[in-house]
Amino acid sequence: MASRITVAMVAGEASGDQLAAHLMKALRSARPDIDFVGIGGPRMASAGLDAWWPAEKLSVRGYVEVLRHYRELSGIRKRLLQRLLAARPAAFIGVDAPDFNLWLERNLRDAGIPAIHYVSPSIWAWRGGRIKGIARSVSRMLCLFPFEPELYEKAGVPVSYVGHPFADEISPAPQRQAARERLALPASARVVALLPGSRQSELRYNAATWIDAARELHDRHPALRFLVPLTTRETRKLFEHALWERKATDLPISILFGHARDAMMACDAALVASGTATLEAALCRAPHVIAYRMHPVSWQIMKRMAYQPWVGLPNILEGSAVVPELLQHDATPLKLADALDALLGDEAARATQLEHFERIHTALRCDTASRAAAAILAHLPAAAP
């Protein structure tokens, strides 16, 4: 029987789970002898991960929220390190989640295990000093955006630009009609997609505001329909509870279990929580407004440390305010409704967003999984003859 090798992976949220699963398939296509272990979500499990802990355990965002869960997260990380040092995988791949993964990567690399980090931390947006710690932690950084490698090359960090897998997965061809058919939506329906986040902490801060904005918008346009794609049972329960609390169960809101891309492709406009979903919205050609709320202390810390004038990936990639952003105190139901209303009623503004989104798609479409797999394979032992 041919010998097999083990690759350990950790992804901590829905977007990381998606990125990792894509990469796992490309790696296994090149090396069928690889077994995957670590922490991941349902997509990674479907791709063959032996999950020692679920990714949901790591799905926490914001300083205050992390502090609340610090003891549990720290305990998981220490136990995981012990298990990995005993198992001696051929390589470790940390998928995003830098605050959790970089500590693991440094310890594993010091123990002689190659440590690859997939998705550069946003050192170009805030906390740029982290690059010194990254240089001590990683054997190679895999970057998704074309402006990132130069930062690592200057710091002497081995780096590969691989593009973004979402740009490969999502066709640049028009998908609106097919998406509406999949969701059983009439071609003439006016639809707004609401994406309040994939983490439980995001739902706790965003759901009520998103719902109140939908109420305001629906009062103005009673024919509007709303789609809310959610990734887990826990986030669905939180949103349903918020609907009940806001006395909004009468609104024409369809909660979808997954189907985020279908919702974004099918909609006339979307309200999207800041994060990877803003890039997906651009690639799905969804004209949108970006919004976000978090714990006030987390907000003040992040605000002081930010380098960029924007938080949304489409704006950062294009270097201009392509998509409206309403954050924290500006993310009120009335302001969100006004921004969406303006977008729904302004064909020129929608067309301008779509032109920028097409340019972003072209730049990021690079056969990412194959590029990333090739960079990782160079760190693995040769296949047995």
Question: Could you walk me through the main structural features you see in this protein, from its secondary elements to its overall organization?
Answer:
This protein is an alpha/beta fold. It folds into two domains: 5-163 and 366-377, Rossmann fold (3-Layer(aba) Sandwich); 176-364, Glycogen Phosphorylase B (Rossmann fold, 3-Layer(aba) Sandwich). The N and C termini lie close together (11 Å). Helix 4 (70-87) packs parallel to helix 5, helix 9 (176-182) packs across helix 12 (260-266) and helix 10 crosses helix 16 (333-345). The radius of gyration is 21 Å and the shape is globular. It has 18 helices and 13 strands. Strands 3-2-1-4-5-6-7 form a seven-stranded parallel beta sheet, with helices on both faces. A six-stranded parallel beta sheet has the order 10-9-8-11-12-13, with helices on both faces.
Count of helical stretches: 18
- Rounded to the nearest angstrom, the radius of gyration is 21 Å
- On the 0 to 100 scale, the average pLDDT is 89
Shape: globular
Question: Quick one: how many beta strands?
Answer: 13
Q: State the helicity in percent bands.
A: 40-55%
> Major β-sheet, in short?
7 strands, parallel
Find the CATH superfamily of the largest domain. Answer: Glycogen Phosphorylase B
End-to-end gap: 11 Å
- The figure for the number of domains is 2
- Quick one: CATH class of the largest domain? Alpha Beta
Proportion of residues in extended strands: 15-25%
Q: Helix/strand-derived class?
A: alpha/beta
The name of the CATH architecture of the largest domain is 3-Layer(aba) Sandwich
Spans of at least 5 consecutive residues with low confidence: 60-67
Strand order of the main beta sheet, please? Answer: 3-2-1-4-5-6-7
CATH names the topology of the largest domain as: Rossmann fold
